[in-house]
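Reminder: ligand-aware prediction takes two inputs, not one.
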Amino acid sequence: MPAVSTTTMLKFTATTHDVPGRAWAGLPPGPVVMGILNVTPDSFSDGGDAMDAARAIEAGQRMIAEGAGLLDIGGESTRPGAVPVPPEEERRRVLPVVAALAGRGVALSVDTRNAGTMAAALDAGAAIVNDVTALTHDPAAASLVARRGCPVVLMHMRGTPATMMAHATYADVAAEVMAELNARIGAAETAGVVRSSIAIDPGIGFAKTGEHNIVLLQRLPILLGLGCRIVVGVSRKRFIGQLSGAEDMKQRMAGSIAAGLYALSQGATILRVHDVAATVQAVRTWQALAG
Ligand code: HH2
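Here is what comes back for the chain with 6-hydroxymethylpterin-diphosphate:
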């Protein structure tokens, strides 16, 4: 893990105010709601809800009408211990949904760690790659993203979905996540990815305990120093249940919105959520008041 010097930290802090409005993926500068479309039978929070293409397309259309600025389409669950999905099956799940929702007024991201799925989804009309492994899982991913020149979300994780919780040990979670994301940005740039096409994500729940998630959100402004827009996904996650007492994942909407608004106040500008209509209403109200 690269060391981050005090001078670098100060430089990061000094540029903080520049970042939230930064152009990325053609999105407006303020908060954007990214609707989650999991075309999977086993996602932790909505598994099976949008499993077949027709239901996923309908859900996507509803999210667009509800004010989503982005749709994130995935065909493989990354919950702790999830069974990996062969890339061919992943493509069978996501491609018809991408093709049907392309050109409907919002950008589509494909949530995948496989270069073949990234390429096929971009060909089918997706504009953005969202990789929970920050382009580390597939050796062909970084050069593919560089060649296509598409915007990319680099999320922080350690290990794999199967092993990540064994790696949830940090002396200073915020500084280590920042340093590790900084290293991933550097690796992507070395592969030819342009920095302005990169957004970052602290990876809430990925190789993090509930306490780590809380500290990361409280110290989120440290990530602004990396000069990229920040995506945050707290929606229905386990720590929302821990904080609020809501054990049923589908009963975690209010807590998810509270955590999402808090993330916006800490410098995030893209919220990855299941409950689009309620989040859009909350974000608009928060934005009007916060200015
Ligand atoms: N979280 C999940 C999946 N992809 N991508 C980004 N950038 N940030 C996240 O926090 C994130 C993500 C996990 O949530 P979900 O899609 O609801 O569940 P599953 O992985 O089980 O499909």
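Residues 44 and 79 are 6 Å apart (CA to CA). Confidence is low (pLDDT under 50) at residues 1-18. We will return to this case in the review session.
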